[in-house]
Each structure stands twice: as C-alpha cells, then as structure tokens.
Fold this protein.
Amino acid sequence: MTFQQPSIELSPKVSDEVRKTTCYMCACRCGINVHMKDGKVAYIEGNRDHPVNKGVLCAKGSAGIMQVNAPSRLRAPLKRVGPRGSGEFEEISWDEALDIAVGWLGPIRKSNPEKLAFFTGRDQSQSFTSFWAQNFGTCNYAAHGGFCSVNMAAGGIYTMGGAFWEFGQPDWDHTKLFMLFGVAEDHDSNPIKAGIGKIKKRGAKVIGVNPIRSGYNAVADEWVGITPGTDGLFILSMVHVLMKAGKIDLEYLSRYTNAPVLVNATVGPEKGLFLRDENDKPLVIDRATGELTAFDKPGVRPDLAATYERDGVTHRPVFHLMAERYLDESYAPEAVAEQCGIPASRIRAIAADIARVAFDEAFELDQEWTDFRGETHKTMKGRPVSFHSMRGVSAHANGFQTCRALHILQILLGTVEVPGGFRFKPPYPKPVEAHPTPHCKVTPDSPLDGPHLGFVRGPEHLALKEDGSPARIDKAFTWENPMSSHGLMHMVISNAHAGDPYKIDTLFMYMANMSWNSTMNTRGVIDMLTDKDENGDYVIPHIIYSDAYSSEMVAYADLILPDTTYLERHDCISLLDRPICEADGAADAIRWPVIEPDRDVVGFQSALILLANKMGLPGFTNEDGSAKYKDYADYIVNHERKPGIGPLAGFRGENGDKSGRGEVNPDQLDRYIENGGFFIEHVPDDALYYKPWNSAYQDWAVGMGIYDSPQPYLFQLYSEPMRKFQLAAEGYGDRQPPDHLRDRTKETLDPLPIWYETDQHGNDGFTVNALTQRPMAMYHSWGTQNAWLRQLHGRNPLYVPTKLMREHGLQDGDWARVTSPHGEITVPVMEMAALNHNTVWTWNAIGKRKGAWALEEDAPEATKGFLLNHLIHELLPPKGDGLRWANSDPVTGQAAWFDLKVKIEKAAAPDGLSESLPSFDPIKSPVGTGPAELKWKVGK
Amino acid sequence: MTELPTSTDRKMGLVIDLDTCVGCHACVISCKGWNTENYGAPLSDQNPYGADPSGTFLNRVHSYEVQPEKGHAQLIHFPKSCLHCEDAPCVTVCPTGASYKRVEDGIVLVNESNCIGCGLCAWSCPYGARELDLAEGVMKKCTLCVDRIYNENLPEEDRVPSCVRTCPAGARHFGDLGDPSSDVSKLVAERSGMDLMPEMGTKPVNKYLPPRPKDTVEEEIDILAPLLAPVAEEPKGFLGWLDKTLEKF
C-alpha cells in the first residue's frame, strides 16, 4: 500500500473545567488538577503551581479516578446484624446511625469518658480529631504515628526541633551528597523523587543505606546493604571516624548546639543535668572573658572545652562527654563492620567522602543575616551534605536512639539549616519547649485538661494515675515507653482486650485496618475483636468504625459510618497539624467536593461534628446551646484556636488579605479554590537558612502565628529530658519506675545517642531478618482495590537473597515455610540478588482477605497474597516473669515491625488451591464485587 | 503491506534516563489515564477486580537485576513504550494501512477505523510495544500523545506527552531527535544515549541514557584517606585530641 496518512484532530477539547484540589491517594498531599467532562472526573494530573509536587504526579495520584469509581466504596451507614466478623450488615439511615453512636458515647461521657478509645489511623486532620476527643473528655486518643514513625518524629524534635519529611527537606538546590537511611519506596514520595532527579542532573552523589536495593536505593550511586537494625552502629562509627579526624564543625557546634553547655559531673540528684542560671538558662563559659554566661547572651562565644568547678562540683561541657564516648575504639569501623554487614574500608570511605564534601566543598551564599545573639554575618555558610531517613531506621526497638544518632551526625558536620544541608519547613523548627506536654486528667461530663499528646520533659509529665498505673489504654507516656509522643495505636486492642490497664466500653476508629494489615498479630487481634466474656458479651463491648471502603476492618465493627472519597469532601491540611510547607514558605491546603457523593455517605470529620452536636460537646456548642458548626467546612472557616489563628492560615481577615493571623473570612474556602486549593507565604530571603537562630526568621514566624514569641534555641546533642528519666531509674526523685524497668531505663534513656541490640529473647534459631515495604505505586494508599494499581502490584512473593535460595534449595515459584517465634506462614518465593544476604522481604498490604475491597474471592491478593503481620506479635515472647513486654521501642513505644527474625525452609505447595497460609474464611462483602470489564471514558 | 514515508520532517521521541528512573510507574498510570479518555478507544481492563486482571497499557516499566562482574547486584528500572522506529516493521507489515508513520514528526500511529485487529504488527515489533485492546479489538500503542503535543487547548508548557509531564524524577525527556541542536539530542550526546536492540535494524527514535557506574567509593580511598588522618597522632587520650582539635578553632 502506498504511503497514506489520515488527518486527525490534534487539538481536541481536553475538558469542560479544571477543579484544583489536594490528592489523598497517599500522605504526600500533592496538588491536583481534576479535569471534568459532563460533570464527571475525566483525568487527573499534577498542579504545576503547587508547592509539594510542582506539576508532577505519581502513579497513585493519576489512578485516583479508579478510586473514585471503586466498587468497594461503602454506600450507607451499616448496622451489624450477624456475629462480629461475619460481614453481615443492614444499611441504616444516618439518623439511626448517629442515635446508636450517641446511645453508647453519651452515657460513658457522663460517667467515665476514658471508656472511649478513639484512634484515628491515617488521619490528616489530627488537630480537629484531637480537639473533638479533648472536648469529649477521653484521654484515649491518638492517630497512627505510634506504629508508623514516631521514633523519627520524636528523635528529631527532641534533638533539633524537627525531623524529616513534613518537618524538613534537603536543600535540593545546593546539596552535593545526599544520603538516605532506611528510606524504602517510602515517605514524601514525589518530592524525594523530584529531588533525586534534580541532584542527579547536577552530578551530585546519592548514597542509599538499605538492606533492599529497590526504588531510590536502586538509583543510588552507592548502595550500603546494611544488616537491619544496625544503622545506629554504622552512624556512630562514622561519628567516631569524623571526630577522630577533627572533621566536625566546631564553630557551628559552639554557636548553635548544646556542645558547650556545662553538665554536672558529680554523683547525686543533679548529675547529668545542665548548669543553669536563675532564669533557668543553660550556662556556658565565654571564650572571650572566661566567665560563666547564659548561652544566649549577646556577644557570647561559648567555649567547647572549659571545665567549671563550683562548690566542689565539677561541670564539663557536653562536647567533652561526646568525645569521651565516641572516640572510644568500640566505635571504630573495624569493631562494627561485621555486625553492620559493611566492610570497615567502606565505612571509612563513605565517612571520608562525607568529610570531603562537607568541608572541601563548603561554600557561601551572599546573604547577610543576624543571629539571636545579635551578631550579623555577612554571608550564609553552606555545607552541601544532606540526609533523609524514615521507617527503616525508626521501626526498630533501638530506632529512637538511631534517629538521634543520625541527627548528631548531621549536626557535627554543621549541615542542618545551612545551605546545601537539611532545611526545616515551617512551622518547624520548633523546640520541645514550644510543644505541649501530654494531658490525661479525665473528668466526667467535661473536657480533658489539655491536649492528649505532647513532649514530656521528665518523669513529672508521664501520663500516670495517682496510684502510678497508666492513665491511657495504650500505656503511652508510662515507664514502659516514657517519650511516646504519638501514642501506641498498635497496643490499643490488645490492652483493651486484656483489660490492662483497664477495660473500655467503645472502640472508635477511623481509617485503620486493625483486623488486617495495620496490626501486628492479625489472627490474634481478630480473636480479640470477636472474643466474648462469660456472659456471652463481647469483651470490647462496642466498636464504631469509619472508612470510605469495604476494608477488612469493616466486618469487625458494630456500626459503620461511611466516609466519602477524597474528591467528595472538605479537608484542610493545616499549619496546626501536618501542613504542606516547603523550606522556602509556609503553606497549607484544602480539599473540596469537586464531585458530589452519589451514595449516602458523609465525610468523617463532618460526621464527628454531627455527633458532637447531638452530645452538645463543649467547643462545638454556643452558650445558648446551639451548634457552632454545621459541618467540617464550617469548622475550617470559623474555628479559632487562638484569636486570629484558625485551621487555615491563608486569606484571613475581612478582605482576605491577611496571612497567618487574622479575623475569620467567610469567603476563605472560595479564595483557596480560586488559588488552586492551597496558600503559600514565602519566607524572606534573609530568613531562609539558620532558622532556629535567625532573628529575621523568628520575627517572621511570630508574624505568621507560628510562634507566640521568638523561640531561638540550641540543638540538643545531649538530651536533658532523657537524663531525667535515667536519674529517676537511679533512684532520684518522687516519681520512680517499677523495679523491673530500672535497668532498661538506665540503659536506653541515655542522653547521648547509643546503639544497642534489640531484645533477642526467644529468637534462638531465628536468624534471618524479615522486612516489608510498600511499592511506590501503593505507598500509603488506602487499599489495593484500585483497578489500575493492582495490575502493577497484585502479587507479593517473598524475596529471598541468592545465598539463602541456594542454601535452602529454592527456585522461583517454590513455596517456603517461614516461621518466627510467634507464628508461621507458607508463601511463594522469588530470588533477589540486590539484597542483604541474610534478609528476606515482601511488599506489605498486598495480601487481602477474601470478601474485602470488592475483589473476587479468587483474586491473587486473596489467594497467593500474604502478610508478614502474622509473624509479628505486639508483645515480645514471654520471659517467664509474668509481665507483658511490648514489641516496641522502650523510649517511644514505636512498633518494632522490623525487628522480626525468622527461619525459612522449603515447603511443599499448600494442598489444593496453592494458596498462601494461613488462609482465612471469606467475609461477606457489604458491597458485592466489581464489574468484569472497565472501559472508563466519560467524555464523548 | 504498508509503506513508510521516505523521510520525516522531524523525529519526535523520548529520551529515558535509566540512571534516574526509580521505577515508580507514574508514567504508566498517567499514560493510562490520558489515553483512556483521549485518542481512540479507551484502554480497557478485563477482570479488573478478579483473578487475572489484564488491561491495555501503552507504557510499562520492567525491572531487571544486573550482576556486574565486580560489586553488588543492581536493579535497573526500564520503562518501555513504542520507540517510533524509523524503519518500523509494525507499519510495513500492516495489511490494511491502519498502521502508519506520520511524515511531519515520525510518530507511529494506528488509524483505529482501519484496524482489523489481526495482530501482525504486535508480532513484528521486536520490542513488544503494541497491545491489542480486548474490549475494542483494535491495536493500541503509544501515540506520543499526539493529541497533547500540538493541542492549542493546553498551555504551551503542557504540550508534552503525559508521561513526560508527570515523571516525578524528571527521567523522561521529549523532543526532536532528528535535530542535533535540540536539548534531547544534546543530552543523548553528553550521556552516551543508546538505541534499544540496534541489531534489529529498526532504527528506534527513542533513546535510553545508561546508568552511571555505581559503588565506586572504595576505589577512591587513596584520595579520600588523608581526610581521615587523626588530629592527634599519638593517642594521649581525650585531652590530646581535644587540644589538637581546638587548635584549628
């Protein structure tokens, strides 16, 4: 046939209208352009103007269209009519649903508000849900941070007033060496991808420390396939090498950290505490005068070496204590190499490379700035080494100390809040002192005495009752885990079932798949949720659950409050909570209903307001008894946390021209919508770096309502709050730990970062590390029912390193029995070479229960898919002491998912269907299953 | 059989950076979204919630493990779509003239109204870059978003294929590979861009930038070692170190 070419339409109409809102396919909160045709969602792309994603969008974001049409969407409130776990429900009206809920909640609020345990999972509205819980009066509230990454958050805040991800970011424009620890295909998905792309384009180096070489670690120039749980040892070895070589930033340490602060060195109740003046300010020796001086006195140049004697008591600077500890040869590369699985030569080479970039490639930005001591600096000095870290280091029982160690490393290098290093995003930096302490005083028919969660400064802030027993159902802020700033969601059901520390009446959860992939010990938790007492009543009497989709958890609730999808709702991503700021600006965002729900569903936050109004909760009720807010949108606009400060910082004031502080603007949401769904206020040029000590930044932050007054502070290389817990364990003070926790408290609450091996009791014979990660196309996404995404990741073999494949005579497609001290699974295996030779892993949350998520029962997720959760218990194996030891970090209570040790052996294919084991009975789907074919084209 | 144009005015195509691609599949799903709603029949999915889901995708990411002679195994993410070959066998094999290569820009397209779904083109493509849509019975393939790149209803900066616009890592580049002065041609020259399977003689327009060498830091230790020379040669304990260290301060 001779050449012929038809004419085609090159400029078709793209859409009738573009509606700009915020993605919720994961926790990244990118801006999206939703293209509408005939009132329907036709296409979703990234919003180029948005500070988070700047136009790009990941697979999940583009697949949002399949989330909005998902057959698993719940359609109406549900009342359980069969036994718990059967999935037998009856659709009811919202009036009936709210009446049932208030019928349970109202009486307990009048008598024992703590009988409500309210835990909100993947909540992006914690400043609102905690406000609701506070006004209800229960002390039992948290979101999912305790089983996610509280070690990362708390380790950062206690050390330097902020951590990674929403707290800060690498200086992508200047960094020349970027080092990732334990970042799988993980948090902050689009910004990290964009950042890596940007720095690689410049030829900057990426070093990935991770037992698994996939995702970001696959493109890293250097891969360190570390033994899981030893990151802290590797980091402290680099600290050792760098300190020994003097490759640390003494100027920075002297000016901006507590390295020069004097510490009491004499045994007694003050040992290890800072020497302070009458205004409680830590003291240093001024190098110029040799005088004892408050750390922040104008002009002071703190001395890193001076010792100070007073009344027979010796005081030494923190720097002295650090040198004593980290110069010790037990941290030498040769001493740690085997344990870390990294050759000593490689540890030295990486440390040397870091030193080269930090010091030989130091540079200056031509920008004058003034520090909190009143000194003006002509330039901003930069050190182009930056770090990022996430769950791989935090989800171990030594994770808090490891996170601290990583921050110590970057602070010693002088790379935090400097050009080329790590930068905070407003409202961070924010020192511990600017955060609340936890509150737990419950009064019937009254609000709680303050915010539930916070940052303890010492034993005096623990959430203990007068008899010393835990005040909270999850035992947060107790001697078992004193600095548990995000609560312990993974312990709630177990403790409530055990009645330890007490029994509850109603468990109320949101977006938390606690009967499946969001819990340890899945089978056990299912049994706890369905267990009955001697009277035939459920041990956990009432369960209310809110979700948009037919997740596995739905079957285990008595009452379901169906949520909307993310395109059908109002939300605010608030500066009071976890905002979307960039290092260069304060930003927040909204979601708004770009489509209306076609089902009888209500956004969870609006449902909470309806409940609050029915119960007349204070905070939601005017003096005349009328409701303050009719729904969440009304709250977002009209709620004020303090005069002039509300959930949204943008377009405040009568004319919508005020930022940060300003009166309520009734048109605020419209202004956000006009602006693309977000608001950003840029940080002034002279305030862009050195934020914790930069007067211009501090003043700007006060103006924005981020601080009430300037809050300059020192980075806490040495953590005095931790020392206070240690002192108590040594026998000092009124609040004393129980004897069985004394030694552990002394060891693990060390005020200078340490590394310790996690509790290996019961692990005899279990020598292989087992991990999970989420694929990039599903990270933090809610469910795998998405028709497009499940075609990318519908199966999850156990990836086994070459060495173990050979040792066990395994080939791809074979089955292996994997056992841990707690349980056993039988699963398909696949070889992976780019993997730590003693580590196996799989994709998390691919495995689904038959009947959930509107999938057919023979879907591979429900047959071959599996969870590692069956192998992980929320408690450590019994030690014979009669005590329940949590499988959590002893400092923060962070769930230690990645401490799992297993053994593997080849197994025959499971009988019959070749299904992974354990196999669970199907649950009845309240929504049926999806269609047999999709041809999703909404335009004509 | 169908003829190819003797030459094309431009050679529009993609340059894909394998050093940067993190394997996130953003391009795959963005492509699926745009091309389900736009050019030709929607990209359908069979058994989307069932046992063996399969759908039409114009772009897929494969991952390969590579074991170098020395050093750690590596994982390479490899996005693959139609390479818009100059000597496209999928066109010459087409019995109805439905497959064609555009003379203006070299884009290989299927005129769906003439496609009989015989599958010869998919068979002839050495890259496996064509997919028969099971619902519509027509052959689907990457259009290089021909309905975006000239689309006057889009802002100029958005007139690129949807996979390029969405790629978070910036690993995908679009331009005229027939023009040696274009950004993409310069990138190919700088980074030693490669043809995929050149031995097949299809002269693909799309190019791949190879991954940079990895895991080399220990080889640089001769240069790096002096950086770690201890400040105090003779270990006289902490005070010796402190004095020496602070001398520099």
Remarks:
- Residues 204 and 254 of chain A are 29 Å apart (CA to CA).
- DSSP finds 24 helices and 35 strands in chain A.
- The first helix of chain A runs from residue 59 to 62.
